[in-house]
Write a structure and sequence with these properties.
- The longest helix has 33 residues.
- This protein is of the alpha+beta class and 366 residues long.
- The chain has 6 helices and 17 strands.
- α3 runs antiparallel to α6 and α4 packs antiparallel against α5.
- Helices cover 40% and strands 24% of the residues.
């Protein structure tokens, strides 16, 4: 026997004895939503684990940092560091003085050459005034004009060296006084040319031959002095371009030899990305490989590998794992394909680089 229960409420639940009762909306869906939220919260670690696992399978992510191409400045010759004008992280411009070196042996040689020049000039003056005061006046005048031109050139050189800090104020004043003396000498000889010499022809020829020999020596000394001044100007290390000082390797008073590294300057105009690719992912360390570089502010840009080292090395300690392990990696240099904002162009700024995983069914050139 089958019993069936029928009620008027089943057919019209909002009616009570013929009167319509306005019931409120049902809340039967709220517990279901609450239940799904509880499930989402409980399984969120599992979801995150699955997400990271899938991400690691689909993408290759390696550490790296931004770097300025370093230009090493070395000492052209041995000497002592006299002044260091900059420090690490300073911004520099083209031709800015960086380090001033001093070479006492070079300065001593310059003084010796200058002293010999002065001695020969004095000898020529005295010799020919005594032997051929009249006949040699014209020759003496030509030498005075040549000496005047040399002093003007020397003063210009000292002025340029003084402007960049490679010469002292005393040397400039001495050169200026030497020029005034040369001008006075020329003025004196202009008047002396009107006087007539009263000595024998034999003595005049002998004195002229000796003077010509000393003149040749003076020409050699002038070339030598110019070469010494050029060498001294190289002791002032100047910036070859605009950039940022990455490191300074010397201090004032330190003795350096030829080729000693003095400092490194990085160029902001050519920011590079240095990444450390694990050895197991060596297939991605090839020229032309592109990747997505992510910065700390969730900004990103594309970059391409343009340089690879020939050997593997330990990954830097700042990129080590949570337990301090430092695996071997291949350092690759990447060139950004998009401009980087100046406020983010910071030397050593950590970044992460992602490469799209290459699946076995894909060809090697994809």
């Amino acid at each position: 026997m089958k019993v069936k229960f029928q009620s008027e409420k089943q057919r019209n639940p909002s009616s009570e004895k013929g009167i319509q009762v306005p019931y409120g909306p049902g809340r039967k869906h709220l517990p279901r939503v609450r239940w799904w939220l509880i499930l989402l919260f409980v399984f969120s670690p599992l979801i995150y684990f699955v997400f990271t696992l899938v991400r690691d399978v689909a993408l290759i992510e390696v550490p790296g940092n931004l770097a300025f191409p370093a230009q090493t400045y070395r000492a052209s010759s041995g000497g002592v560091v006299e002044t260091v004008f900059v420090k690490a992280s300073d911004e520099v411009v083209t031709d800015q003085p960086l380090i001033q070196l001093s070479d006492q042996s070079l300065n001593s040689e310059i003084r010796q050459v200058v002293a010999e020049q002065n001695s020969l000039n004095n000898w020529i003056d005295q010799r020919f005034v005594e032997e051929n005061a009249g006949a040699y006046v014209d020759y003496q005048y030509e030498q005075a004009i040549r000496s005047l031109n040399n002093q003007r050139s020397y003063l210009n050189t000292i002025s340029r060296l003084l402007a960049v800090g490679a010469a002292t104020r005393g040397e400039f004043l001495a050169a200026e006084q030497a020029l005034l003396d040369a001008e006075q000498r020329v003025a004196t000889l202009v008047e002396s040319r009107r006087a007539e010499a009263r000595q024998s022809q034999a003595e005049a020829r002998e004195g002229l031959a000796q003077a010509l020999g000393n003149t040749q020596r003076l020409a050699l000394l002038s070339e030598r002095l110019r070469s010494l001044y050029d060498r001294r100007s190289e002791l002032l290390v100047q910036s070859r371009g605009a950039g940022q000082v990455l490191s300074v390797s010397v201090v004032a008073g330190e003795v350096v030899g030829p080729g000693t590294a003095l400092l490194e300057v990085g160029s902001r105009d050519q920011v590079e990305v240095r990444v450390y690719i694990p050895v197991e992912d060596i297939d991605y360390a090839k020229l032309g490989q592109e990747g997505l570089v992510s910065l700390a502010n969730n900004r990103s840009f594309r970059a391409r590998i343009v340089g690879l080292p020939q050997t593997a090395a330990r990954v830097p300690s700042e990129f080590s794992g949570p337990f301090g392990e430092r695996n071997s990696g291949i350092m690759a240099t990447m060139q950004p394909l998009e401009p980087i904002a100046d406020e983010w162009a910071i030397n050593g700024l950590p970044v992460s680089v992602r490469f799209d995983r290459r699946w076995p069914f894909q060809s090697s050139d994809q």
